[in-house]
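User: ok so my PI wants both of these folded by tonight, can you help

Assistant: No problem, let's get them done. Here's the first:
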Amino acid sequence: MTIAVTGATGQLGRLVLDELLTSQEPDSLVAIVRDAAKAGELAARGVQVRVADYSDPAALEVALRGIDKLLLVSGSEVGSRVAQHGNVIDAAKAAGVGFIAYTSVLAADTTELILAPEHKATEELIRASGLDNTILRNGWYTENYAQTVETAKQTGAVVAAAGDGRVASATRADYAAAAAAVLSSAGHEGRTYELSGDYAWDFKELATAITRIVGREVVYQPVSAPELVKVLTAAGLDEGTAGFLAALDTDTEAGLLATVTGELSRLIGRPTTPLLQALTSAAAS
């Protein structure tokens, strides 16, 4: 069985391959990358490296020949992802790939989360393709708050428009372990997994965790979304990015990231990584 992972030099894809290397022969694994120069470590470990961009259908079809199972790691170019993912799905079908797993977002077909529409559309393309599939609906990554730790270390405050909202986050390594479990074992076809951390923390708890990490008191300073946009643009972000981040906070306040399902810990066979432990590791790296 040959397993391929797209975005294999990215933050999630590389962790999936790390996990797969603990149970699979290296030459049975294929890293699909845009830049082979960034995949030297994977090649040195015996992983096959193939070059293809999500925007290059011909290269994708060549790269996916001989693949039994494929993990499509969602692209990072918000606004272009449906077309790019469609290219991968079409190439997989043309190349004879037997199974595809996709990293979606929690409750993609019902949530009002600002990031959800492209994931929902991709899920629909996968199901319409006729390929055997598993949808991995990932919740929030704890590492998304690594910059928050650095900023709070300087300012003594976590400034957010999240109100009393909670976040059931887990680490990328937790989600990577789930993807590896699906790719390396049978019985997941046709399943949609709603994946999230075992505990939904609030931003006061986030500030408390950061206090322990940075060695100074950090407090949570809730603001409105317009106020947050002003704070972020004053710090140098463009208006569009600031507005996007404020919208994510608004979604958090609405409880869209708070769902605890227990499916992630069941799939990986262990508890998800606690907030303090995850942030400590993220800060150290």
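One down. Here's the second:
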Amino acid sequence: MSVAGLRRAARETVSGLPREFWWLWTSTLVNRLGAFVATFMALYLTLDRGYSASYAGLVVALHGLGGVVSSLGAGVMTDRIGRRPTMLIAQTSTAVSVAVLGVMVHPAAIAAVAFFVGMSSNASRPAVQAMMADIVRPEDRVRAFSLNYWAVNLGFAVSSAGAGFIAERSYLAGFMAEAGMTLVCAAVVFLKVPESRPERTAAAVRDTPAEPAVRLSTVLRDGRFMSVVGLSFVVALVFQQGYVGLPVAMGTDGLSSSDFGTAIAVNGVLIVALQIPVTRFIQHRDPRRLLVVSSLLAGYGFGLTAFAGSVAVYALTICVWTIGEIINAPVQSGLVVRLSPAHGRGRYQGMYTMSWSAAALVAPLMSGVVIDHYGATWLWGMCAVLGTAAAGGYWMLMRGLPAEEKVTESVALVAVTAAEPGQDAAAGLPQDAVERAV
């Protein structure tokens, strides 16, 4: 492709998205640029503090458990008090708790604060996902989620290198740097990101009864959506093996931690390089087929690891499942929004977020038990089976999927919530927007 073609492709990828999305995207990038705790927690506890590997594993598990606990609560907050307040509370709490964690010395105190860090750092995710669904047109959502996922990985790639440099000199400086960057993220949200929660739907605008309230019980009774959550958990279990099962397997093959770092770096490089062009290719294609393909790539990408014995072959298998990850992330996020009612997106996103947090807890246990008792080959075979099962589940689940909502919905919702507090929601809409919405 020529330089002009690349420029045109880049312009088409980023064009047409609202300004509010780009401020939200910026806050995501800043947040991930400051990531330190999740990456270096185990090393900090074992190398800097001198604790055992077992204690470090307990603290990391408590950090993950905090994310599981906060997912549903944050989803409820997102719907009740709004997307913006939830993000501000979560980010401010994260900044404070990370700074406190950096100065804790008692084992019980470190464990307790790590749990709170996990809760607060995960609490903004349902709000971010719900807000993106609110402000972006339905036909642009896969592209928007893909760009946001790209920002997450770009920020993580940069922060990992920078955080490693900082950690060699002072772990405390790393904690304080993350706290500071999280406060910057909160400042961006406070100054530039407006509330987008839909206070009234188009039905309410034309004085018809409002849609029924969405509660957590409503989400749990939504069979199709909970099936998506279950399939998401299965796929997440597979992807998590790249960070829990893979390093152990490479170690048993006599490879070093630096070899693992070299191999897994392929994941981040490919996501940063390919996320945007792949999104251009998939954004208007059948989501059912994309989810089936991504599940198979994930399952059999890890399945091929059973035949790996060198860094080069391990890196090759990582390429396979990374392509699956690039496809799966934005398409599955778009599917979650498609199945979520506008006035209940926070709760639905919270339940979806919990599936990934739960997988992060279960995956280390699964890999440890399987490798210890049966060997790594069995683990990779299980990944292939799980990927195949998820592919079949997506194929069956998405038959008769409801039609995509009207394009005008997101425009109406943003305009509704832009009205002044206490003002009639319909008054916040331009007349032609009201007419299009109804």
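The CA atoms of residues 96 and 179 lie 7 Å apart. The longest helix spans residues 345-373. Good luck tonight!
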